[in-house]
Amino acid sequence: MSKNVTLNNPSNVEAVNILKSGFKDHRSIIIVGNCSVYYKGRASSQLGDGERIIILKPDGSALIHRPKDYPPVNWQPPGSLFRIKLDNDSIGLRIFRKKENEVIEVKIMSIIFLAVLDLTDVAEFNLHASEKDMQEAILLQPSLIEDNFRPITSERHVEPGFIDIMGYDNKNVLTIIEIKRKKATKKDVMQLKKYIDSLNVGEKRNIRGIIVAPYLAKGSQELISSFRYEFKLITPQQCSEILLKKKSKVITDYFNIK
Amino acid sequence: MSKNVTLNNPSNVEAVNILKSGFKDHRSIIIVGNCSVYYKGRASSQLGDGERIIILKPDGSALIHRPKDYPPVNWQPPGSLFRIKLDNDSIGLRIFRKKENEVIEVKIMSIIFLAVLDLTDVAEFNLHASEKDMQEAILLQPSLIEDNFRPITSERHVEPGFIDIMGYDNKNVLTIIEIKRKKATKKDVMQLKKYIDSLNVGEKRNIRGIIVAPYLAKGSQELISSFRYEFKLITPQQCSEILLKKKSKVITDYFNIK
DNA sequence: TAATAAATGTCGTTT
DNA sequence: AAACGACGTTTATTA
User: Fold this and answer.
1) How many domains does one find in chain A?
2) pLDDT (tens digit per residue) in B171-218
3) Is residue B123 part of a domain?
4) How does pLDDT run across B121-163, given as a tens digit for each residue?
5) What is the mean pLDDT of residues B77-88?
6) B15 lies in a domain?
């Protein structure tokens, strides 16, 4: 018996049986066929007949894709439950989360193709150049900001949220850094202002504010200047490379010690 | 010749030929197989060998799904280009957007299943209970806010953005409404404040501010009170029903006239 | 559980 | 092309 089952144009009876065993065994399932979709939960939606790709994953996530667009037309996140039943001229597929009160009902008129698959995927996924990477890179190499910049805490909590990086500059002035992995908007500048204001509730202190980003949105520079903050151009790519270098250095050092 | 091609365990040579003609004919393509994925663009990522579902759509959108999680592990939005080539022991699939400088490279070691499909889906998709629906419902039935509320403009543009609804109340006081389809946060209250402040740049006027939402986040009520704004409980579902009623009434009226 | 902010966010709309 | 806000946003993190 093959671990994977694939069928072209199965009968609805046949399909329901295979799907039921697929659910039981927590397989990855692909259904291609003509269906209509009804959704009700936070919002509600209807979608008339058409040919779509339905993916049901072992973790309970579900995707219904039309032959266009990046996002699924309907979906459920992991943890959803699947129920299937044979109707007169169609298959009823119910994808639901009870607690959240979210339900998708798929009426499958006919199946073009059905796959019940036992997929193995344990590989690591590594994503670089996130905002967190930028933060790490600056902490590893504070001179990215300027010579003799000395971070004191990362992610310090103040009332409005978390400060990305806090530190002292060359002249021992408290410096607050707000990092953006892409264009820094006026909103981002206001965010920085909120953090600095919240540190200034008692006696007024001299606090520097620096926006770190690859570039600025229109109007951001004016806002930055009006608050006497500064903009420091750093790209996620730069940071990514610094992390790579530093990490390989750590490995090199390790072998040198050995 | 069938319009749809499905193949179990095709050879790499066979697969490349079928995929090439599939790209040419703008088909929907499903590839299930063992692959590794490399992405570089706004960020970058690596993903080692594993069995995944790859979907390529006629509009140039692409999805690479692991057998878990709701979001694709790698993707490209519509408008991407697909290129395929046969390597020694694998297939090289390149999914890229030149202008945006975003590239996915998929190294497909072996294909478990391949489908090249001509899917037809022209159905309408209707989503209800969006914020726009709530806005429409209030404009159709302004008494939802309170008796004798009279909207004057919807979506008026002021400096920080767009005001959801503007109008005059029973006492002819200018009233600004900010609509949220779910929990209204402190941020949303601040948004309303920005709009009202921007209308108050010249002479100070008496302006009412109302947050319309199904419920409030913690701290929002305090913020609302501190600005002397108000909270009006309205749910997206309520609005959805009003729209349905009003629209069916329009149809009824139409038939009555006829 | 709620709040908060990031995301390769994407997508639509308007300037 | 840039700015801005909605999205059934989802997801992760933290109080």
Assistant:
1) 2
2) 999 999 999 999 999 999 999 998 898 888 777 788 999 999 999 999
3) no
4) 999 999 999 899 999 999 999 999 999 999 986 556 666 668 9
5) 97
6) yes
Which pair of structure tokens corresponds to residue B21? 């003609």
Among residues A71, A93, A68, A6, the alpha carbon closest in space to that of B120 is found at A68
Amino acid symbol at A154: S
| B122 belongs to a structural domain | no
Shortest CA–C1' contact from A42: which nucleotide?
Answer: D8
Q: Strand pairing partners for A47? A: A37, B125
pLDDT tens sequence across B100-125: 999 999 999 999 999 999 999 999 99
In this structure, are A105 and A174 located in the same domain? Answer: no
Residues A207, A174: contact at Cβ < 8 Å? Answer: yes
Q: How far is CA A257 from CA A243, A250, A252, A254, in A?
A: 21, 11, 9, 5
B244 in the same domain as B137: yes
Distance (Å) from CA A192 to C1' D15? 21
Q: Residues at the strand C interface (CB under 7 A)? A: A 69-71, 99, 127, 129-132, 160-162, 164, 181-182, 191; B 39, 41-43, 45, 61, 73-78, 102, 104, 157, 183, 185-187, 217-219
Is pTM beyond 0.85 here?
Answer: yes
Q: Smallest Cβ distance to A78: which of B51, B58, B70?
A: B70
Residue B258 pLDDT exceeds 50 = no
What is the domain range of residue B234? Answer: 131-257
Quick check: is B125 in a domain? no
Helix/strand/coil for B255: helix
Task: Establish whether the CB of B131 is closer than 7 Å to any nucleic acid atom in strand D.
Answer: yes
Give the closest-approach CA distance of B170 to chain A in angstroms.
Answer: 32
